[in-house]
């Protein structure tokens, strides 16, 4: 399973000042720690909620340039603003990257997909449209189809699409975990070359012992066809669930990763 | 890289369980470095005797793997990874060990006995026998005594090779010999046995004709029998 390290996100209290005050050493350390813990991509979201668009463009340039120079991992440029994505990708300048994210919004797709095509990078595609997150599998799949069609039109290959089936808190609607899992399987079926990705922790919002729910959900999602997760790679419960689920799915040749993590446990 | 270094590298990579360059090993961070397949190809290209590669490179490495498994350092998948490497190596070496075009020296039925899944050693023996000019009928592993006796009979085989790697399954070899006697086939067939737990004394005890230490010893013994 591909881990996208989620920790460099300016909406987190500890990260916001790091971005605003350009604390280079701390940023690099946060990226490196995630890489050491097994992250294949380092997500960078500089949306602090303060300042304007130009500030964010400046911030993403700085953050990408800083991380890229110090940590040998691809960067997942994370923003809901196409200009920030464009600036982040430009700053990557050949360094492997990914775009996080688009949804089934035709205007926005027309802005972002050309960036993905130009830089030849994968894109995370949220299974939602302008009205929000559809409550059922058919609605989410329709959103994915809209994105896939637009991607085709802009020359982004299906193999570069990472569909996120999205997950709503089950505390509010207990059917939602299964909707997500069924969407995963349906996406895999309809877009066989595409990959799937998810941020899992939403599922447990509002319930106790969240780690337990998140870990079980991750294992189930791996069975349903999850390829990548946006998560905290340092979270040992989640890491264990990822290693265990991958091994059980027969996707860890000779149990190398599983055994290496647990043989002396 | 000279011969010793190359053999050492092959040995190391079998122990690491790395078949091809992109494979992970038991230890971290070996991806990308040449592994067993690439190294064996190099060794062949360098003209190193295939027999030396098998004896020094492969067999020695599997002994180390067994010792590590014994100590609990290696798990079953680790052992299988190494076994797979030996299989890949033998795929490359087989044509070199077999000098084609020799007339048949006789029909040879070969099997790993019932309850035993170890077939790496037997497979090497099969290749060597073919190379030495025998017509080999390899029945595979975990072969029931009934099937072995039937194959000897149906093919009118002059030789039978039995392999067992477990102290529990080696007893089955005696059962096979008894069954051959009961079927009246014992006199038509020479029975050779092999496998780590077996010995000359054990062969004598169960009434086998010979015990083979390794595949090359088996060929030597057969040569002596023919003389
Ligand atoms: C003419 O006829 C002839 C002539 C010569 C013949 C011949 C027949 N047969 C052999 N020869 C001779 O020529 C060959 C070539 O030179 C030589 O063959 P060898 O087979 O000796 O040598 C090979 C080239 C290399 N050697 C090998 O391939 C065997 C290596 C070791 C590490 C080994 C392996 C790889 C495996 N194993 Co197993 N395994 C071990 C082995 C440890 C060891 N040091 O031997 C041993 C044999 N295993 C053992 C065990 C316990 C087990 N294994 C098991 C499973 C396996 C694997 C499947 C993981 C794998 C086998 C894969 C395969 N496809 O063969 C299990 C049993 C499965 C079963 N029912 O058979 C399991 C029970 C483990 C478990 N807990 O599940 C131990 C046996 C202990 C005992 N007291 O009997 C063991 C000694 C390891 C250990 N140190 O504990 C000669 O003996």
UniProtKB/TrEMBL annotation, chain A:
It comes from the Bacteria. It is an enzyme of class 2 (transferase). GO terms for biological process: homocysteine metabolic process; methylation; tetrahydrofolate metabolic process. Keywords: Cobalamin, Cobalt, Metal-binding, Methyltransferase, Transferase. InterPro entries: Dihydropteroate_synth-like_sf, Met_Synthase/Corrinoid, Pterin-binding_dom. It holds the Pfam family Pterin_bind. Residues 1-249 form the Pterin-binding domain. SUPFAM superfamilies: Dihydropteroate synthetase-like. GO terms for molecular function: cobalamin binding; dihydropteroate synthase activity; metal ion binding; methionine synthase activity. Its EC number is 2.5.1.15. GO terms for cellular component: cytosol. NCBIfam families: PRK07535.1 (NF005719). Belongs to the vitamin-B12 dependent methionine synthase family. This is Dihydropteroate synthase. It comes from Desulfatitalea alkaliphila.
UniProtKB/TrEMBL annotation, chain B:
It comes from the Bacteria. One of its GO terms (molecular function) is methionine synthase activity. InterPro entries: Cbl-bd_cap, Cobalamin-bd, Cobalamin-bd_sf, Met_Synthase/Corrinoid, Meth_synthase_dom. GO terms for biological process: homocysteine metabolic process; tetrahydrofolate metabolic process. Residues 1-105 form the B12-binding N-terminal domain. Keywords: Cobalt, Metal-binding. This is Corrinoid protein.
